[in-house]
């Protein structure tokens, strides 16, 4: 990472006159923290991990030792298991990936432009894995157990249509069809009031399928028909 990029991340476009000296102090503090974290088991100095390079610094670590790598590896394993139809394994891998999280991404780090972009990427990736796990568990018939989590997620993401669709299907399959239809009405009201738009055609098809008591919505697995599979895509 070049020194100017680090300065911009820390102070924006107006770094103080002492920026370079302060940055060097921060690097020293980080190296001290690395030394403590590695302990006596590490043979080399912290400078071998956080290296000084021409014009900047390099964090020289094996990517397989990072939690981000582990999260992305487990998520990919879950995706491939799902594609093979190994739904129990897929659900387990998605859960293992999500269990690595402890709160929001980089929650205790000052976020400049670059870190802010990485935080957004990580949070979007996390939400995608969460959706995939919900989809997999719906296909495994675990709809009742998903209701508390989906209720909280739709409250946190009030305009996220796919989560609402999964919530509607889980409610319907749990014998709570009226609440599934109420969920659609709540989502529609939010979208109209906040954005001036109607729910997507996929959500409207799902609502109509529930109103028609389409038997396909009650099935688990990939054979769910198109009208009901909008939450499972």
Write out key terms for the chains shown.
233 residues; 9 helices; 2 strands; two-stranded antiparallel sheet; transcription regulation; 61% helix; mainly alpha; single chain; disordered C terminus
Give a summary of the structure in a few sentences.
Pfam families: BTAD. The chain has 233 residues and is mainly alpha-helical.
Task: Outline the structure in words.
A hairpin with a 2-residue loop joins strand 1 (50-53) and strand 2. The two termini are 39 Å apart. The chain is 61% helix and 3% strand. The chain is mostly helical. Helix 3 (67-83) packs parallel to helix 5 and helix 5 (113-139) packs parallel to helix 7. The protein has a two-stranded antiparallel sheet.
Intertermini distance: 39 Å
Helix content: 55-70%
Helical stretch count?
A: 9
Percent of residues in β-strands: under 5%
Topology readout:
Elements: H1 3-11, H2 19-38, E1 50-53, E2 56-59, H3 67-83, H4 87-99, H5 113-139, H6 143-156, H7 161-173, H8 177-195, H9 201-211
